[in-house]
């Protein structure tokens, strides 16, 4: 068929150019149905997160004006990135039906290729094309579209797209479309994804806000929270770290099994039943079926990425999984690094730890930095559920490696926690105490670890007791006792199955039990739980007699705790008999002038005071005072204390003249001592007491102010001893008639 192209006449002017040809009409994009490649249905139950939605809309606004736009959502696995991206895709489609929408699973090259093949079929790409040719054709076809959105989900291995990769031959970034009217939305667990979108074009997806978490829980459970369930529900959400995946799984399980909130929470708070509970998964149509819904498995891929990039980061991550999840100091992370350096004979600098290890763990949202004040040491929190996941994987699949990481955590904290608990070491003790307790929860399998853990708990219990945290001290000492008994059990097992152990070695491993019992007795007495104090003191004395013998000085000294327990309960006759026995043993073994014998003599006199047997008390105190003066000298604080002790007996016996004479003698001796150069608060307290007894309130006030200042500087405003010093100063002011100035 021919076409007539003749022009018989025209009105075109000069220099007119005419192009002859057939006219073809192409329909506009608006007249065709938009391409729509989404693998998941819309989530009708999605809980809106207004703050994130607002950021998303603002940062992607240019794309609606026909300009290319890129954005990355990054955050911990299970935080809701995919659901946010999916929701945005459906909202974008509803707002603009002509917008072409494509979804690619970007986990790795395989999933990327599979989804590009699916898009290729939708776009009508020649099926004969494969590999890079097909990828490039898909990119070109998408770029030709007027208005499009491409979502690359789970781009967790950013090296696939060239970020941090040494080999760029397989870089998939060259296949990602660009062009006017296009939007690329990335989701990843790795913060480095923002290198692809632009550093200012990334949104971190944190855990849900409390109100959002509550709404999700209500929706997943499909049941209102009753008034008596509110507190349990809040605790449950806190335990689940307000993480969307964990909340939806818990709510769905409770809905399906009709499990009450309290019952589910109790399972979650108990050891291995916690793991059993977290492992339970419910089908979720809004998640890919090949991806685990289990909280304990969802981070495995990210953890493997860490291991491939940095062995040290991987080791540190697995070691701090055994710490408490909050307030992990940088010094602890450096100590762990040093432990691994020793085993590998390598050296990791502080800069490497800060710039490589900590940064990468933060980029995967496994740890987060807390705000440090001024030049304070950096501290970090680790996600609690990530800790669970790591411990679960090691315990169930790699028990030998588990002992390596938990053991390293124990060694690091043993090195960091002060050997001696003194006031000047309290800040260090406070920094590491919670972590020390947590780490010892996992040390019950190997003999060496049990011994180390028991000793670490001893130090922690001493710290809590010294600070007046008596309930914490009690709980820690109980754990110490349990591990001490475990130590003896393991020794017995070794002796029975391997090498026989001598009685002397056995006794060495029995001694920690007696020491732990002694500590518990002291702690219970300090709490006013005298029957419990007596119970542990009795056990401790019996154990000591078995180890050391009845007539050993160590056994004799340990009976002091039982004597104190009897006295606290008013059982002075029992206390007297036991104190007499102790005194005889000490005099026989150590001699009557030994300091321990003098103390035992003085203690027996105090028991006589309580029974109003003042003559017996005076005779013993006079003898003890004579021995102390001979051994230590008259100006020694121990001798001065004994003078005060004797003065007290005279006062109790109404022999006030003798008492006054001794108190005057004390005042003279204390004024002559060198406390100005080497002040001991205990000695100063005694001098204040002496001033008050003699009505010298002005001197007492001045000295008590000095004591208060010392306590404030060394212990802090809120310490029990500081508060007591303040109360003493108030009392002196009140007795001196200046009550209204007592706080000054």
From TrEMBL:
InterPro entries: NLR-like, P-loop_NTPase, TPR-like_helical_dom_sf
Gene Ontology terms for molecular function: ADP binding
PANTHER family: AAA+ ATPASE DOMAIN-CONTAINING PROTEIN-RELATED (PTHR46082:SF6), ATP/GTP-BINDING PROTEIN-RELATED (PTHR46082)
Name of the protein this chain belongs to: Nephrocystin-3
Source organism of this protein record: Trichoderma lentiforme
Upper classification of the organism: Eukaryota, Fungi, Dikarya, Ascomycota, Pezizomycotina
């Amino acid at each position: 068929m021919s076409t007539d192209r003749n022009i018989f006449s025209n009105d075109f002017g000069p220099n007119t150019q005419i192009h002859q040809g057939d006219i073809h009409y192409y329909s506009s994009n608006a007249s065709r149905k938009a391409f729509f490649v989404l693998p998941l249905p819309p989530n009708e139950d999605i809980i809106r997160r207004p703050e994130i939605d607002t950021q998303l809309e603002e940062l992607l606004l240019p794309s609606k004006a026909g300009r290319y736009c890129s954005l990355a959502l990054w955050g911990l696995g299970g935080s809701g990135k995919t659901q946010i991206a999916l929701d945005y895709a459906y909202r974008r489609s509803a707002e603009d039906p002509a917008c072409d929408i494509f979804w690619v699973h970007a986990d790795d090259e395989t999933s990327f290729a599979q989804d590009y093949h699916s898009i290729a079929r939708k776009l009508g790409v020649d099926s004969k094309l494969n590999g890079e040719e097909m990828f490039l054709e898909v990119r070109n076809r998408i770029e030709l579209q007027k208005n499009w959105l491409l979502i690359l989900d789970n781009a967790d291995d950013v090296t696939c797209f060239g970020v941090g990769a040494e080999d760029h031959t397989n870089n998939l970034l060259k296949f990602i479309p660009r062009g006017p009217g296009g939007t690329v939305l990335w989701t990843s667990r790795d913060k480095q994804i923002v290198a692809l979108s632009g550093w200012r074009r990334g949104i971190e997806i944190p855990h849900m806000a409390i109100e959002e978490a509550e709404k999700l829980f209500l929706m997943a459970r499909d049941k209102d929270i009753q008034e008596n369930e509110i507190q349990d529900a809040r605790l449950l959400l806190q335990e689940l770290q307000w993480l969307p995946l964990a909340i939806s799984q818990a709510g769905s399980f409770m809905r399906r099994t009709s499990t009450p909130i309290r019952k589910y929470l109790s399972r979650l708070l108990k050891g291995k039943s916690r793991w059993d509970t977290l492992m339970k998964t419910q089908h979720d149509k809004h998640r890919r079926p090949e991806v685990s819904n289990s909280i304990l498995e969802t981070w495995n891929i990210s953890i493997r990425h860490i291991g491939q990039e940095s062995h040290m980061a991987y080791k540190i991550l697995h070691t701090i999984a055994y710490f408490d999840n909050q307030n992990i100091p940088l010094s602890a992370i450096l100590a762990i690094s040093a432990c691994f350096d020793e085993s590998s004979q390598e050296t990791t600098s502080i800069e490497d730890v800060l710039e490589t290890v900590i940064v990468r763990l933060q980029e995967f949202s496994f740890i987060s930095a807390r705000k440090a004040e001024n030049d304070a040491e950096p501290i970090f929190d680790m996600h609690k559920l990530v800790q669970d996941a790591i411990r679960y994987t090691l315990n169930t699949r790699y028990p030998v490696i588990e002992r390596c990481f938990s053991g390293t955590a124990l060694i690091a904290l043993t090195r960091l926690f002060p050997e001696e608990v003194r006031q000047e070491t309290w800040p260090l003790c406070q920094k590491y105490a919670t972590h020390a307790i947590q780490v010892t929860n996992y040390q019950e399998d190997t003999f060496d670890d049990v011994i180390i853990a028991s000793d670490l708990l001893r130090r922690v219990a001493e710290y809590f007791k010294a600070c007046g945290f008596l309930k914490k001290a009690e709980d820690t000492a109980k754990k110490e006792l349990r591990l001490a008994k475990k130590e003896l059990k393991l020794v017995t097992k070794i002796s029975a199955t391997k090498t026989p152990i001598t009685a002397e070695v056995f006794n060495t491993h029995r001694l920690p039990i007696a020491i732990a019992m002694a500590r518990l007795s002291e702690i219970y007495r300090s709490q006013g739980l005298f029957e419990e104090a007596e119970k542990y003191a009795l056990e401790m004395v019996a154990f000591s007699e078995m180890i050391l013998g009845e007539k050993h000085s160590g056994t004799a000294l340990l009976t002091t705790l039982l004597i104190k327990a009897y006295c606290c309960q008013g059982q002075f006759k029992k206390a007297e008999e036991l104190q007499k026995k102790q005194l005889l043993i000490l005099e026989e073994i150590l001699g009557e002038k030994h300091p321990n014998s003098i103390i035992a003599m003085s203690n027996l006199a105090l028991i006589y005071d309580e029974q109003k047997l003042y003559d017996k008390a005076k005779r013993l105190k006079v003898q003890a005072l004579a021995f102390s003066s001979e051994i230590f000298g008259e100006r020694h604080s121990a001798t001065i204390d004994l003078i005060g002790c004797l003065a007290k007996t005279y006062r109790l016996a109404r022999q006030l003249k003798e008492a006054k004479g001794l108190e005057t003698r004390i005042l003279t001796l204390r004024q002559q001592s060198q406390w100005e150069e080497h002040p001991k608060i205990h000695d100063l307290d005694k001098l204040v007491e002496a001033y008050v007894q003699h009505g010298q309130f002005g001197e007492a006030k001045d000295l008590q102010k000095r004591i208060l200042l010392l306590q404030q500087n060394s212990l802090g405003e809120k310490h029990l001893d500081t508060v007591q010093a303040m109360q003493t100063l108030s009392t002196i002011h009140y007795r001196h008639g200046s009550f209204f100035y007592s706080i000054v």
